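RECORD TYPE: inverse folding
INPUT: structure tokens
STRUCTURE:
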């Protein structure tokens, strides 16, 4: 059975048993799940259903979910089964059937559809855990006995093996795993499932999800008992095709064969080649799917994961001696193999290929730079007559320049050098600790959100948002709860927009007969619910009282203008730069808009002008703006843009700017583009690698910017005593005059140079000056050394200064001094080592820097000593 046939057989089996077939969610998790960077499990998109936060579209679901895990990335290629990207088949019951039904379905599909021998199937069940306060899962044992699995093939294991949880907190429960016994060729008769040996291969995990795990380690029952199962498509394909590794299935062979074609090597010819081809195939799939889901290479978060696997691929291509660019060919092979099951791949081919080419070219430059830096490390090690390289040098190459550690070790080995693996790993662990600290800090904000969720769960109603139709609403005050000096409240109907989709929440007021409060924050909650944070201004608030809720209209209108302008900006950027442009983050508030988008280069002044002109033209043309409620399928057919990381249901809200753009969006917008009034780009910068950031203002804020600039221009005109239209020309004249003045030696500079020349001492026939000086900048230091050298004739000058907490050193030697044995590079390096820095240059002139200004006098003394030794 081929992999594609297995995928369809599984989904069809459960569809025939009243399961709704669900499409795979993106590898970029929904904004409702900030706990992970990427989708790592088949059930992850359904967590709100399992937690009772949202109503599922059907009580029984089935899916083939694309997943990506980085925990075993270093093992990829070493074993027959470890992968980063994989497909997880699953069936899910949400308050419908439980253990008995899950066991019966799994047994029937395994034995009757997939054709596994019942005598080769073993199962494991949860054997209890004192820490959780749970005993053996005897119910699961009875279920397996009922379908014919004998007691001797049921193995009880502990929490580590047979208790499943999505993360540190969240839905969890005991699980039961199915194993296939591969026979005595793969292990001894005393081996059992759970031994982590090759004889028993786990292929299906049935999770009996019935608890919520809290931060304190306690368990509470979920609203409903649920079933979550996961069967790895790749592993089961290997079992059914009778091959020893997933890389020899039809799901991987075309990619392995591409690597063989490009390299001229063969899978299995030796361990190094086999490992490289496995990494080539696995990372090629992962790269293509991540790019297809809108991830771009960067040095942060999921972009760093993508960059890491792409660079591991490129490094392994060197092992395979693959010549020339190859990532585009890999992406095309993956699209050819899997585009039928995942139509987003062919749809995004242009974007996938663009980023693959860019990263390959960029990393080529990184490799060249890294090899130059590594050559310097090798040189210093040989000069020191050591066979070991400092792990800090290897870590700097890896962390700062993106140079693969494996490649560092490989190139060092060719020079007879080694690096301390344990020292490198210590530095890596420090970096991971910093990263985890940042993650914990992010979780602290998540803990407050959890408190808001708990508050909302205790309410007996869900808030209906009425802010699309009105900015004022008569309603009733629901439950109240104190929260860090504020009040959390629920309203049955609310005109206040909750923060989400990049748009800030509304502000405003609520008034009751007994009090008044300011709306400080509106929290977006699952299933289109919300809660408001209030700051009491007068009297008191009493649940059950009538409420007049009023949105701050001026703030809302300014925010609406900026949100619609953001859609116009997105469309203009795609029209100007290409369809690879995707939103990578945004801020939409009343003061400005900020838009992050995927693009690898700085925008030129002309490009920015054309984008701004295009947006303003659409504003002047007064295009109608309307929100349309439709199905996700119909919105996609109409070409609506969906934002990566956002969660959409079957019914969606599509905001259409007539003739310009369509985006799935829940934000508030103006009725026509003319209401925006004015659009002006204020900044363009880098947000992250391959992500640019622009900021803009509209309407009244734009007018304020122009007023401020006009006032600056007026003041400059008065100061320069020229008309406003001639200000630029006048400034250019002043700049020319300044440059000319700077080129003329100042009296103070000449006097300083003369005083230094008078301090020269003759050493070995060379007049030498080594002094600590005060100058305004590095260029002045270099000019001073030139001037002193000219005054000395055959002289040698070393001068140093401290600027902004850094040391700067210059060694400037006349040719006659070099002929006598002096080398500026060696002298300045000797001085730089004292101040914790480094440098180099030519024999006649060299510069260096350092980070310890307090040791600058010692550095000057070290330079003098180096000169004395060279001339002795």
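DESIGNED SEQUENCE:
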């Amino acid at each position: 059975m081929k992999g594609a046939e297995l995928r369809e057989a599984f989904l069809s089996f459960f569809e025939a048993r009243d399961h709704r077939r669900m499409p795979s969610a993106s590898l970029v998790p929904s904004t409702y799940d900030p706990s992970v960077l990427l989708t790592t499990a088949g059930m992850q998109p359904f967590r709100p259903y399992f937690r009772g936060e949202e109503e599922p579209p059907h009580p029984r679901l089935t899916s083939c979910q694309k997943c990506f895990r980085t925990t075993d990335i270093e093992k990829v290629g070493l074993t027959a089964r470890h992968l980063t990207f994989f497909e997880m088949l699953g069936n899910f019951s949400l308050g419908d059937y439980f253990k008995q039904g899950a066991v019966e379905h799994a047994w029937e599909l395994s034995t009757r559809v997939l054709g596994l021998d019942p005598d080769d199937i073993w199962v494991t069940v949860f054997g209890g855990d004192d820490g959780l306060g749970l005993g053996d899962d005897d119910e699961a044992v009875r279920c397996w006995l009922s379908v014919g699995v004998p007691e001797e093939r049921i193995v009880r294991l502990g929490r580590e093996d047979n208790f499943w949880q999505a993360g540190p907190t969240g839905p969890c429960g005991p699980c039961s795993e199915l194993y296939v016994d591969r026979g005595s060729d793969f292990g001894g008769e005393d081996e059992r499932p759970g031994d982590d040996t090759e004889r028993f291969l786990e292929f299906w995990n049935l999770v009996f999800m019935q608890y919520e795990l809290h931060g304190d380690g306690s368990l509470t029952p979920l609203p409903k008992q649920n079933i979550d199962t996961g069967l790895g498509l790749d592993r089961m394909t290997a079992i059914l095709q009778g091959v020893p590794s997933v890389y020899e299935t039809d799901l991987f062979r075309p990619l392995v064969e591409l690597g063989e074609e490009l390299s001229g090597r063969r899978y299995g010819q030796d361990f190094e080649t086999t490992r490289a081809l496995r990494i080539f195939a696995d990372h090629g799939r992962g790269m293509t799917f991540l790019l297809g889901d809108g991830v771009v290479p960067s040095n942060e978060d999921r972009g760093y994961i993508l960059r890491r696997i792409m660079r591991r691929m490129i490094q392994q291509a060197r092992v395979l001696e693959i010549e020339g660019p190859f990532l585009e060919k890999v992406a095309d092979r993956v699209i050819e193999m899997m585009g039928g099951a995942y139509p987003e791949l062919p749809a995004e081919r242009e974007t996938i290929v663009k980023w693959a080419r860019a990263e390959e070219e960029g990393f080529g430059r990184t490799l060249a730079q890294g090899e130059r830096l590594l050559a310097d490390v090798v040189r210093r090690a040989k000069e020191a007559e050591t066979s070991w390289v400092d792990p800090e040098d290897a870590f700097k190459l890896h962390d700062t320049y993106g140079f693969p550690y494996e490649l560092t070790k490989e190139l060092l080995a060719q020079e007879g050098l080694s690096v301390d693996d344990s020292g490198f790993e210590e530095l890596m662990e420090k970096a991971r600790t910093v990263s985890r600290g940042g993650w914990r800090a992010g979780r602290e904000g998540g803990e407050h959100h959890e408190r808001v969720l708990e508050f909302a769960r205790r309410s007996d109603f869900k808030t209906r948002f009425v802010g699309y139709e009105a900015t004022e609403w008569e309603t009733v005050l629901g439950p109240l709860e104190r929260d860090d000096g504020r009040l959390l409240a629920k309203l049955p109907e609310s005109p206040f927009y909750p923060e989400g989709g990049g748009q800030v929440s509304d502000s405003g007021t609520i008034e009751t007969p007994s009090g008044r409060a300011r709306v400080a924050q509106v929290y977006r909650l699952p299933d289109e619910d919300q809660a408001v944070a209030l700051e009491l201004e007068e009297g008191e608030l009493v649940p059950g009282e009538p409420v007049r809720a009023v949105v701050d209209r001026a703030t809302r209108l300014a925010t609406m203008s900026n949100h619609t302008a953001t859609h116009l900006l997105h469309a203009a950027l795609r029209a100007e730069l290409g369809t690879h442009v995707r939103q990578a983050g945004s801020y939409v508030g009343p003061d400005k808009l900020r838009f992050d988008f995927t693009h690898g280069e700085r925008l030129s002044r002309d490009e920015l002008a054309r984008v701004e002109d295009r947006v303003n033209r659409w504003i002047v043309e007064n295009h109608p703006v309307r929100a349309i409620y439709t199905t996700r399928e119909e919105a996609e057919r109409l070409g609506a843009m969906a934002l990566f990381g956002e969660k959409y249901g079957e019914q969606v809200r599509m905001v259409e700017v007539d003739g310009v753009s369509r985006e799935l969006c829940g934000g508030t917008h103006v009725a026509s583009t003319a209401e925006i009034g004015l659009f002006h780009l204020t900044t363009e910068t880098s947000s992250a690698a391959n992500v640019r950031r622009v900021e803009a203002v509209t309407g009244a804020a734009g007018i304020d910017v122009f007023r401020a600039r006009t006032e600056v221009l007026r003041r400059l005109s008065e100061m320069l005593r020229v008309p406003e239209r001639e200000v630029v020309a006048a400034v250019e004249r002043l700049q020319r005059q300044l440059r000319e003045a700077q080129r003329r030696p100042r009296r103070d500079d000449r006097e300083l140079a003369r005083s230094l020349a008078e301090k020269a001492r003759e050493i070995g026939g060379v007049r030498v000056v080594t002094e600590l000086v005060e100058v305004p900048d590095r260029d002045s230091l270099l000019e001073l050394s030139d001037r002193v050298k000219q005054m000395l004739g055959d002289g040698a000058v070393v001068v140093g200064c401290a600027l902004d907490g850094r040391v700067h050193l210059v060694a400037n030697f006349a040719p006659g001094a070099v002929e006598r044995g002096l080398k500026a590079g060696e002298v300045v390096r000797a001085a730089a080592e004292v101040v914790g820095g480094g440098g180099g240059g030519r024999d006649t002139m060299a510069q260096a820097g350092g980070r310890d200004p307090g040791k600058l006098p010692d550095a000057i003394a070290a330079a003098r000593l180096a000169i004395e030794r060279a001339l002795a």
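NOTES: The first strand starts at residue 20 and ends at 22.
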